[in-house]
Amino acid sequence: MGRYRPPRRRGSPYITPEGEQALRAELHQLWKVERPEVTNVVHEAAKNGDRSENGDYIYGKRRLREIDSRVRFLNKRLDELQVVDRPPDDTGKVFFGAHVVLEAEDGSEQHWRIVGPDEFDVSNGKLSMDSPMARALLGKKLDDEISVRSPSGEQHFVITDIHYGNSAEKRRPEGRPFRSRSRDTQNTHSTPTDAVRGLLGRAPSG
Which element (helix H / strand E) includes 148? Predict the structure, then answer.
């Protein structure tokens, strides 16, 4: 398991099936495997005299507090989360779970999947739906342009592929040119309200 991560502010309450499975696996590992092991270490270390100078005891107690904090967070979070296990009604637009290919002005490509804030992993192409990039993408369709502010300045991209499912295989035709952004193009950032309302791509109830 990875190193301890302190509790953070809760984000949007959506997660993929594999994301939920990973959280439940972490919870099981912490509660059923690691905590009993650390508890036993602390119990044995407590027999060795002065606890104030006992490294195993001090570290073990600190690790138990970390484990308990993470377990409480995971239990509460898993109760709140909604697992999204089917594609949206309109698979031609970017919603939660979409695999998206973006083309930058220099012709380079970025491949992302829109996932929940509890499972994002930028190094593996998993983008939190609460991130500025994902908010700019939500609700957009093939060939739409987006603009995202970054520390290096505003960046512009064109959406060249959208698909759903576990496969991240690129399916767009080769040679699609980058379309320069018109000065009259409106701001393409989705507002939080718009993003939350349409992120699943489902028809509104009622």
Answer: strand 145-150
